[in-house]
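Task: sequence design from structure.
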């Protein structure tokens, strides 16, 4: 059980590093697009991409800090009291499941807003800046959705391992 716990925590750290790396790359690309091009589609891409890059950095940093805290707390707890560990971990996994579901809803709202902005800017009002912002929201939303679903999958697998260890 200890090895599976450490594997889970390592996968969470890799996911956090990926979030942070993606946030840095997105921030750099967004800054380049926003500063290099005056107005239009590319500047719209840069603005909304930069805003969402901050979200990526915040999420990755938060996940990394949470995982490091769990690395310090959980292995000793597993050694001392396996039953208490299972109860606490199941409760934590259930809370994380609720958070991931709420986060997924927000991501879907980002995608819907992106579609509306892209349609409004590209078709209705012919404003490329709005179309760029909408397109960036859709792309970033899709990537966030993939990250969210991967986190949901990791959490469900860990919950299953903890639950299975109880029997």
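Answer:
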């Amino acid at each position: 059980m200890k090895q599976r716990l450490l594997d889970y925590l390592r996968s969470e750290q890799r996911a956090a590093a990926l979030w942070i790396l993606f946030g840095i790359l997105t921030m750099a690309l967004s800054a380049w697009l926003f500063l290099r091009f005056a107005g239009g589609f590319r500047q719209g891409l840069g603005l909304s991409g930069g805003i969402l890059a901050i979200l990526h950095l915040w999420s990755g940093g938060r996940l990394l800090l949470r995982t490091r805290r769990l690395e310090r707390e959980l292995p000793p707890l597993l050694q001392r009291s396996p039953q208490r560990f299972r109860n606490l971990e199941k409760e934590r996994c259930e809370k994380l499941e609720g958070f991931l579901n709420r986060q997924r809803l927000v991501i879907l709202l980002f995608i819907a807003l992106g579609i509306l902005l892209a349609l409004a800017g590209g078709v209705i009002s012919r404003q490329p800046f709005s179309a760029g912002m909408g397109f960036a929201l859709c792309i970033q939303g899709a990537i966030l959705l993939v990250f969210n679903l991967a986190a949901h999958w990791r959490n469900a697998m860990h919950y299953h391992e903890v639950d299975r260890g109880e029997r």
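The chain has a mean pLDDT of 87.
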